[in-house]
From TrEMBL:
This is Citrate synthase. Belongs to the citrate synthase family. The active site is at residues 280, 337. GO terms for biological process: tricarboxylic acid cycle. It comes from the Bacteria. Keywords: Acyltransferase, Transferase, Tricarboxylic acid cycle.
């Protein structure tokens, strides 16, 4: 817990800090994490209170604008996001041109990036109204894009939004309605997805958010910056972990369902195998989000009348880890991703859709961080230094003279 607020101006002194383990890239007022105590707060509000009492768009407003909205501000914000849910015909066609089995994260990053070409009037990063327009457009289109990412894999058309419904409820309806059939959205499922999106909404300077800030620091527009964040999120050590967790649980199940045997492989670091969904750069305690997700997993499965053997395997893995010295000594606990995939699966999403759902949830955080950075007088273009370890000066050798 050290806070140093001095700007290193000298060009002769350089620090090396692989992975930025000890380097703060900025000051921020958005999200507070105490990794040792397992605390997470958005703008000062504890994550468990927000997950229990708030809604995703309200949390988005809080992260982006700094304060909880009044009732009028919230309904105006919700209505404005709702109004922008449709995407242009050309944009839909563009998303439809990717191979059906393309990974949805790649399609999503491309689609978010392409938004700038369809909305050139929303690109000026220094005009407040324009930035607010881009914010609303991103939140609205991200929902439509994510819904279509699911549908296009099943050869189904994108559905029109129903403006009378809430953000999450209509997202589920647009995603899972069969053509020409209405879909009854279960309130427990809506509530669970709302919670999951809230839990993912921001996590200070993680890999994707740092990416958004670095890209934005060159004054690239919001869509370009967020698209870069989506690509960072796609890696299995970051957002891709939720998909990897389900693959891991499925593999354990298919190999006879012996979690103990799998854990021996993890501890022996066989083929670099890791217990996916465990460990975190900042949390050296139980991730407070994981506790909420675990509870939610049980609620959703019970409501949908489903039993999932993979949930039993997950709980057994956790039980082993919490009592095993390998994990205790390294302070490895479940992170937010350990149980999320099981909920998404119960809702009807396939593993490839898990990380896009993470991206949908993280959208407000990326936007809030980008906006904070653009207003911060301390911001400079992100440009780390290096320690050069290559060849010293040498003379060019003509092709004919090379060995
Ligand atoms: N399973 C087994 N061992 C692990 C795990 C794991 N999941 N995570 C860390 N370790 C071990 C490492 O092997 C290392 O052991 P050593 O000291 O014997 O070499 C030690 O714990 C420290 O690990 P690092 O990789 O140095 O920790 P770092 O902070 O760099 O990594 C990370 C954090 C990437 C999240 C890591 O814990 C991991 O790979 N976890 C699995 C992937 C995952 O769940 N990612 C999601 C992160 S949360 C998110 O993106 C929302």
């Amino acid at each position: 817990g050290i806070v140093v607020s001095s700007l290193l101006k000298s060009t002769s002194m350089v620090t090396v800090d692989p992975g930025f383990m000890n380097t703060a890239s900025c000051e921020s007022q958005i999200t507070y994490i105490d990794g040792d105590a397992g605390i997470l707060r958005y703008r000062g509000y504890p994550i468990d209170q927000l997950a229990e009492k708030s809604s995703f768009l309200e949390v988005a407003y809080l992260l982006i604008h700094g304060e909880l909205p009044t009732a009028d501000e919230l309904s105006a914000f919700e209505a404005r996001v709702n109004r922008h849910t449709l995407v242009p015909e050309g944009f839909r066609t563009f998303m439809g041109t990717f191979p059906v089995k393309a990974h949805p994260m790649a399609v999503m990053a491309s689609a978010i990036n392409a938004l700038s070409t369809f909305y050139p009037e929303s690109l000026n990063p220094f005009d407040d109204d324009t930035v607010e327009l881009a914010t609303v457009l991103l939140l609205a289109k991200a929902r439509t894009i994510t819904s279509y990412l699911h549908r296009r894999r099943h050869g189904e058309p994108l559905l029109y939004p129903d403006y009378s419904r809430g953000y999450v409820e209509d997202f589920l309806r647009m995603t899972f309605s069969a053509p020409y059939h209405s879909y009854d959205v279960d309130p427990t499922v809506v509530d669970a997805l709302d919670k999951l999106l809230i839990l993912h909404a921001d996590h200070e300077q993680n890999c994707s958010t740092s990416t958004v800030r670095v890209v934005g620091s060159s004054h690239a527009n919001l869509y370009a910056s967020v698209a870069a964040g989506i690509n960072a999120l796609s890696g299995p050590l970051h957002g891709g972990a939720n998909e990897s967790v389900l693959q891991m649980l499925t593999a354990i199940s298919e190999n006879g369902g012996d979690p103990k045997q799998f854990m021996e492989r993890v501890k022996n670091k066989e083929d670099g195998v890791r217990l996916m969904g465990f460990g975190h750069r900042v949390y050296k305690n139980y991730d407070p989000r994981a506790a909420i997700v675990k509870e939610s997993a049980h609620a959703v499965l019970a409501t949908l009348g489903q039993q999932d053997e993979l949930l039993d395997i997950a709980m057994e893995l956790e039980e082993i880890a919490l009592n095993d010295d390998y994990f205790i000594s390294r302070k490895l606990y479940p992170n937010v991703d350990f149980y999320t995939g099981l909920i998404y699966k119960a809702m009807g999403f396939e593993p490839a859709m898990f990380t896009p759902l993470f991206a949908l949830g993280r959208m407000p955080g990326w936007i809030a961080q980008w906006r904070e950075m653009m207003k911060d007088p301390q911001t400079k273009i992100g440009r780390p230094r290096q320690i050069y370890t290559g060849a010293t000066e040498r003379n060019y050798v003509d092709l004919a003279n090379r060995p």
